[in-house]
Specification:
The complex is a heterodimer of chains A (166) and B (102). Chain A is mostly helical and 166 residues long. Chain A has 6 helices and 1 strand; from the N terminus they run ααααβαα. Helices cover 76% and strands 2% of the residues of chain B. In chain B, helix 1 packs antiparallel against helix 2 and helix 2 runs antiparallel to helix 3. Classes of the chains: A mainly alpha (166), B mainly alpha (102). Chains A and B meet through helix 1, helix 2, helix 3, helix 4 and strand 1 of A and strand 1, helix 1, helix 2 and helix 3 of B.
Chain lengths: 166, 102
């Protein structure tokens, strides 16, 4: 069951990620990215990260992607026009990408040759209570610092998106 | 109940990350480039969660949480920058925004 769920949602994630990269229209890319995030949240659940899976759906697939879609529609972005690339770039792009992915994957497999099996329900320390306990005791200072970061980001976004900026 | 090797999660993360890198490099629409960055951040989050499972610790979840917060802040500021660029240049093509290019 674990294997089926992993394979199904890993396939969905990879296909949606390919779609993010290959679609020419930004809206199609954004909706594919929502698919990637939904599939990843199921994988987080399989890994016992219940709180993070919910935050992934609410914050990432919900808030951040709505912001993306909102900006795409606000700017009325249309499909990307085909660009003039050199023949060498066209010929080398896919092999270099495949080589990069293969090197990353092989490095992972070499570094962790016999990793333990992941079974759903074996690690149950990822619920809201556990995450909250760690967040408000050991990681209290980073938590407060990151709230300042958010405040700065809000101010920055408001300043940047003002009308009279030049 | 059979399980999945942890390394498969890491390989999936590597594949998603390299797809994000590829999209970042060969897309020309600024918004799509931005979405590729989000894809890379998500791939790294998956690694954090996978190792958090392996070590039976909640610390990786906290780091993922912080990555999500930073990504949300980055999205807000970045999309404001994109809005400003579009207002000033009238284009979303990254090749046309080249004032700083030597």
């Amino acid at each position: 069951m674990d294997l089926i769920l992993f394979l199904a949602f890993a396939a969905i994630a990879v296909i949606c990620a390919l779609s993010v990269v290959l679609q020419t229209h930004p809206i199609a890319s954004a909706l594919s990215l929502v698919g990637v995030m939904g599939a990843l949240s199921v994988l987080y659940l399989l890994l016992g990260a219940e709180f993070i899976a919910m935050v992934q759906v609410i914050v990432y697939a919900g808030a951040v992607m709505v912001l993306f879609v909102f900006v795409i529609m606000l700017l009325n972005a249309d499909a990307e026009s085909p660009r003039s690339t050199s023949a060498m770039a066209k010929a080398l792009g896919l092999p270099i990408f495949l080589a990069f992915a293969a090197v990353l994957a092989l490095a992972v497999l070499r570094l962790f040759p016999d990793t333990p099996l992941v079974r759903f329900g074996e690690f149950t320390g990822g619920g809201p209570a556990d995450v909250g306990m760690a967040l408000f005791t050991r990681y209290l200072l980073p938590f407060e610092v990151i709230s300042v970061l958010i405040l700065i980001a809000i101010v920055g976004a408001v300043v940047l998106a003002r009308k009279e900026i030049d | 109940m059979n399980g999945v090797p942890l390394s498969w999660y890491l390989v999936l993360s590597a594949i998603l990350f390299s797809l994000g890198v590829a999209g970042f490099l060969f897309r020309r629409n600024i918004i799509t480039i931005f979405m590729s960055i989000e894809l890379m951040l998500n791939a790294v989050n998956l690694t954090f969660i996978a190792f958090s499972y392996d070590l039976r610790q909640v610390n990786g979840h906290i780091f993922t949480f912080f990555v999500m917060v930073v990504a949300a802040a980055e999205a807000a500021v970045g999309l404001a920058i994109i809005l400003t660029v579009y207002k000033n240049r009238g284009t979303l093509n990254a090749d046309d925004v080249n004032s700083l290019r030597f």
